[in-house]
Design brief:
Elements (H helix, E strand, L loop, with lengths): L7 E5 L6 H14 L5 E3 L2 E3 L3 E3 L5 E3 H10 L10 E7 L2 E6 L2 E7 H6 L3 H16 L5 E4 L17 H7 L2 E7 L5 H10 L3 H4 L2 E9 L7 H11 L3 E6 L26 E6 L4 E2 L5 H4 L4 E6 L2 H5 L3 E4 L1 E2 L2 H10 L2 H10 L3 E5 L1 H5 L3 E3 L10 E3 L6 E4 L5 E9 L6 E7 L2 E4 L7 E3 L4 E2 L1 E3 L2 E4 L8 H8 L14 H19 L2 H8 L7
Parallel strand pairs: 1-9, 1-10, 2-9, 3-6, 10-11, 11-12, 13-15, 13-16, 16-18, 18-28, 19-21
Antiparallel strand pairs: 4-5, 6-7, 7-8, 14-17, 19-20, 21-24, 22-23, 22-25, 25-26, 27-28
């Protein structure tokens, strides 16, 4: 019989220490061990989001963790999502729906924190009645003492959940002893009691060289080190942060279909392109250089949180002209969501939903016009390509109503009888995120450029992701003391 386990929480010594991936790993480990786990992050800040089956919005990282757990994603897994639209302004998504934009200073100093705390705690409580165990993720550093009173996501959430807390530290960035010891020392006495273990992440080199370091940490902190997880390159889990995209795979490659994704300042849902990154027929790179756009066979305009502002930057930096020239030279252009809107005749934002820009001409490659108004559309969709037979899936997250100025060929036929997007002379536009997860669309997109010698079977991205979750779980399980972890979260072994 499967026993009920208490919650397990992964917090960090800082941002980008690997909390999201470690959380996904434990979701898969618990699933493999016969439990029914679910992820939870009270508050996330990211432009990468996802639509739940109910048509509500959550952080993409929690959707990925739900995939690892083998369960449908739900807003209770990420009740509060902040989507930056400018340096100091965020759209606030509560329980899957936008409640408006807010300046950072107002968000962190206003008196609405009590209400938000009630909301995130209620979401956790609901989730805990449906899944076992809950695997929580913190945000940034647990020791931002200047934000302690307004923290919703780290130690106050751990206390509410009565979770066993594991502190994750990134040894690859250096200073691991100071970051671990300092993080724990800056906690209150009550908070320190919740920290049950330390996990050292991203280790490079010979593990034996750090055996003495493990003992030193345990002596300093009086907390066990549950594992030292080696750095890996051969396991591919969707990333939460787009900060390193510009370093990936620069320059075109012979014998491959070269696909350039235009790096937008407010780029969102960059994980749309992960399937192409792992397709052996394709060489994918991200760029904001006109010369590199010119080298591509296919140019993709991605989604963005601020469509008009990013379109203005494309014009200022010469990238709009580079895209138009690429299309004129016979290259394919694909726009997804905000990128689709940019390919039209005109974009209008009369209510200032995204920025202070009210109107801009588009790139004039598709006969559409878009007005940003009304409620945000968030939904999962089932569809078929206009001339296809395979059932496909994806999701929409966008503001705006797009109208065709004259009749054109739609790109997709939705399950409900409506159409999506359009196709005009090697220019594709769609509102569907995740469209590249579907092999039939990828084949349609790259077929004109695939050389006979490099033809391979279509890439099955869904199967690939499952394999990666299992590889990740095996990697973490191998280097973590799972017996100790189960002792921490099994009420019977804790004497509860």
């Amino acid at each position: 019989m499967i026993e009920n386990l208490s919650p397990l929480m992964f917090v960090g010594t800082g941002s980008d220490v690997g909390k999201s991936v470690i959380t996904a790993a434990f979701c898969r480990i618990f699933k493999q061990d016969g439990y029914s786990p679910a992820p939870f992050k009270a508050q996330n800040m990211a432009l990468n989001s996802f639509a739940t089956p109910e048509g509500l919005e959550i952080g993409r990282a929690q959707a990925v963790q739900a995939e690892a757990a083998g369960v449908p994603c739900h807003t209770d897994m990420n009740p509060l999502l902040l989507k930056p639209s400018a340096d100091t302004i965020c759209q606030v998504i509560l329980n899957g729906k936008s409640i408006g934009n807010q300046h950072a200073i107002d968000y962190f100093t206003s008196n609405n924190k009590a209400v938000l705390r009630e909301e995130v705690c209620a979401a956790f409580d609901r989730l805990a009645t449906r899944y076992n165990p809950i695997v929580l993720e913190g945000a940034g550093s647990i020791s931002e003492i200047n934000l302690r009173e307004v923290d919703l996501v780290n130690m106050p959430m751990a206390a509410h959940a009565k979770a066993s807390v594991i502190l994750v530290a990134d040894i690859d960035r250096g200073g691991v002893f100071a970051s671990v010891y300092g993080s724990i020392l800056l906690l209150s006495e009550a908070e320190r009691k919740l920290v049950k273990g330390i996990l050292i992440n991203k280790f490079r080199g010979d593990m034996r060289l750090f055996e003495s370091g493990v003992k030193m940490l345990e002596e300093l902190c009086k907390i066990p080190v549950i594992g030292v997880v080696p750095y890996f390159r051969d396991i591919h889990i969707e990333e939460e942060d787009s900060v390193m995209l510009h370093t990936k795979n620069r320059d075109a490659k012979a014998g491959k279909v070269n696909v350039s994704v235009v790096l937008l300042q407010h780029m969102s849902n960059f994980t749309d392109f992960n399937p192409l990154e792992h397709d052996e027929r394709v060489h994918l790179y991200y760029t904001n250089q006109a010369s590199e756009i010119a080298e591509a066979d296919i140019v993709i305009l991605p989604g963005t949180k601020n469509t008009l502002h990013d379109l203005q930057i494309l014009r200022r930096d010469g990238l709009a002209q580079a895209i138009l020239q690429a299309h004129k030279n016979g290259k394919t252009v694909l726009g997804i969501c905000g990128g689709y809107q940019m390919l039209g005749i005109e974009l209008l934002d009369p209510q200032g939903i995204e920025s202070d820009l009210r109107q801009l001409p588009g790139l004039n490659l598709l006969p559409i016009t878009t007005i940003l108004e009304g409620d945000k559309i968030t939904k999962q969709v089932n569809f078929k390509l206009k001339n296809g037979n395979t059932a496909c899936t994806g999701y929409e997250i966008h503001n705006g109503r797009t109208e065709h100025l004259f009749e054109v060929e739609p790109l997709n036929l939705l399950e409900n009888g409506a159409t999506d997007g359009c196709v005009v002379e090697k220019c594709f536009g769609t509102y569907i995120h995740g469209i590249l997860d579907n092999a039939e669309f990828v084949d349609l997109l790259i077929e004109p450029y695939v050389l006979e010698k490099s033809k391979q079977a279509p890439f099955d991205y869904f199967k690939f992701k499952e394999e990666q979750f299992d590889k990740l779980a095996d990697h973490v399980r191998k280097h973590v003391n799972m017996e100790l972890v189960y002792e921490m979260i099994n009420p019977s072994t804790k004497g509860e």
